[in-house]
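Summary of Year 1 activities. Much of the first year was spent building the evaluation harness for sequence design. The harness presents a backbone, in tokenized form, and records the residue chosen at every position. We chose the following record to illustrate the format because it has been used consistently in internal testing since the harness was completed.
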């Protein structure tokens, strides 16, 4: 399951359950249509608390979609996960791949105010890792 919502800061993406490559391709297509009309810089809030691990083909499509958002004007993004292990893993990957400068990962299982922290990062650049 995926959902795209337009917010005052940009976009809120929700991914949950098991996503296969067909559903992720639909997400990319819908995202491309929405992003064509976007002229300004924007932020992206990604809620992955209920997402199951992605198979390799689906991971590649997720990466393609992420690149599309970045190329179309995304300035900052935040990813909400539900475990410390997943949050640490994704943070490490972000640092290794060089995207950490504009993306933060928040573990919702340890932060009750995860939504506020995420929006503060996207909207105001308040780094949740320094709080």
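For this record, the design step produced the sequence shown next.
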């Amino acid at each position: 399951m995926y959902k795209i919502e337009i917010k005052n800061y940009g976009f809120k993406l929700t991914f949950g359950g098991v996503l296969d490559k067909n559903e992720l391709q639909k997400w990319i297509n819908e995202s491309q249509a929405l992003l064509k009309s976007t002229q300004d810089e924007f932020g992206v809030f990604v809620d992955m608390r209920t997402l199951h691990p992605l198979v390799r083909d689906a991971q590649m499509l997720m990466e393609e979609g992420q690149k599309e958002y970045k190329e179309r004007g995304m300035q900052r993004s935040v990813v909400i996960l539900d475990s410390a292990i997943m949050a640490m893993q994704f943070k490490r990957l972000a640092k290794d791949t060089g995207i950490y400068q504009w993306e933060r990962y928040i573990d919702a299982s340890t932060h009750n105010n995860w939504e506020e922290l995420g929006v503060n990062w996207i909207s105001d650049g308040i780094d949740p890792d320094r709080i």
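The helical segments are 21-36, 56-71, 84-97, 114-124. Quantitative recovery figures across the full test set are reported in Table 2.
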